[in-house]
Write a structure and sequence with these properties.
Elements: H1 18-33, H2 41-73, H3 77-83
Helix pairs in contact: 1-2
């Protein structure tokens, strides 16, 4: 059924939210590239707060996506198998849900 199937191929076969991981990776790379420019404690603090906020926003977005996907596909046995076997945000790290993580930027 078109529009009712979940995607589990390609990058989604390794991780359920590859786009959010890509966003985290982009901002982490930007943070690392700017290391030589953090010349004062204030710049370090600002950069670290910005990086932390991006990571928290992506975790909150992952939680929202999990809820909407569960509402749409939760009754499908294939989806349940997928959810319990593919990590949610970081490949290889066996974390299969972030529903109970307390993030207030969702």
């Amino acid at each position: 059924m078109l529009g009712h199937d979940f995607v589990s191929g390609g990058g989604y076969g390794f991780i359920r939210c590859p786009n959010y991981l890509g966003e985290i990776t982009f901002w982490l790379g930007s943070f690392v590239m700017g290391l030589s420019f953090y010349t004062s404690p204030l710049l370090w603090i600002a950069a670290l707060i910005g990086l932390a906020c991006i990571i928290l926003i992506m975790i909150g977005s992952t939680k929202r996506l999990e809820r909407s996907q569960d509402a749409r596909h939760g009754d499908q046995p294939a989806y349940q198998k997928y959810v319990h076997s593919v990590p949610v945000l970081f490949p290889i790290v066996p974390i299969y849900t972030l529903k109970k993580v307390g993030v207030y930027l969702e």
